[in-house]
Design goal:
Blueprint: E1 8-12, H1 17-28, E2 32-37, H2 40-52, E3 57-61, H3 67-81, E4 86-89, H4 104-132, E5 135-140, H5 144-147, H6 153-173, E6 178-185, H7 191-194, H8 198-205, H9 216-227, E7 238-241
Parallel strand pairs: 1-2, 1-4, 2-3, 4-5, 5-6, 6-7
Length: about 250
């Protein structure tokens, strides 16, 4: 399968979970991949797996909430990779707690990473994408941005904001041949969900019509479609990959 042959993809939060699954899926589809995560160890590990597939890979340790750091990384990525065709804004964190106990620091940390990070990385590559008059931007939101969740006011706000950001940038960039879409994963088997108690997991499963948690590949397959030529006429959309949870 060579759906993404001769293309360069940047994936934030690529060190584990959904981001890692997307990075490896894109590589298997022929893309060269820039792996961005908070730590050099995680990004380099995934980059190594991509190189083992016969693709080029670059590893960057970047705090996506650091404006100066993202701008510098963006310039270096364009210089080293030569171009960027696909950007996946996947980096995200949670700092859950009831609103009345939530600290301002926990609010800021989640909004800065999940929402501001997507803004900064998108801005870093927008000029280059406009110049080449083509590109795919995929923002990884969440069903929690669609329905909310008690104890996750910060996370819900960041993901809902990411959906609004997706629609606004889709309108701005459409005339230049650039599509912008969002994925809204449901409950996916990752490090985040592995920390849930069995009681909580059972309660969640009752809300999912398909009756099971999703896998990283479920999100990666949807991302691959949105990044491909087959999705050329789709922009400004939110695709829920959630087992029917918010149908």
């Amino acid at each position: 399968m060579n759906h993404l042959g001769n293309q360069v993809a940047v994936v934030t939060g690529a060190g584990r979970g959904i981001g890692k699954a997307i990075a490896l899926k894109f590589a298997s589809a022929g893309a060269d991949v820039v792996c961005v995560s908070r730590t050099a160890e995680n990004s380099e590990k995934v980059a190594g797996e991509i190189r083992a597939l016969g693709r080029k890979a670059w590893a960057y340790a970047v705090d996506v909430a650091d404006g100066a750091g993202v701008a510098a990384a963006g310039e270096k990525i364009l210089a080293e990779a030569g171009k960027v065709d696909i950007l996946v804004n996947n980096a995200g964190v949670t700092k859950d707690g009831l609103l009345m106990r939530m600290s301002e620091a926990d609010w800021d940390a989640v909004l800065d990473t999940n929402l501001k990070g997507a803004f900064l990385f998108t801005k870093a590559f927008t000029r280059a994408l406009i110049k080449q008059r083509s590109g795919r931007i995929i923002n990884v939101a969440s069903v929690i941005g669609l329905i909310g969740n008690a104890g996750q006011a910060n996370y819900s706000a960041s993901k809902a904001g990411l959906i609004g950001f997706t629609k606004a940038t889709a309108r701005e960039l459409a005339s230049r041949g650039i599509t912008v879409n969002a994925l809204a994963p449901g409950f996916i088997e990752t490090d985040m969900t592995s920390a849930l108690t069995e009681e909580v997991r059972t309660g969640i499963l009752k809300q999912i019509p398909l009756g099971n948690f999703g896998q990283g590949d479920d999100i990666a397959n949807a991302a691959l479609f949105l990044a491909s030529a087959e999705a050329r006429y789709i922009t400004g959309q939110v695709l829920a990959v959630d087992g029917g949870m918010v149908m």
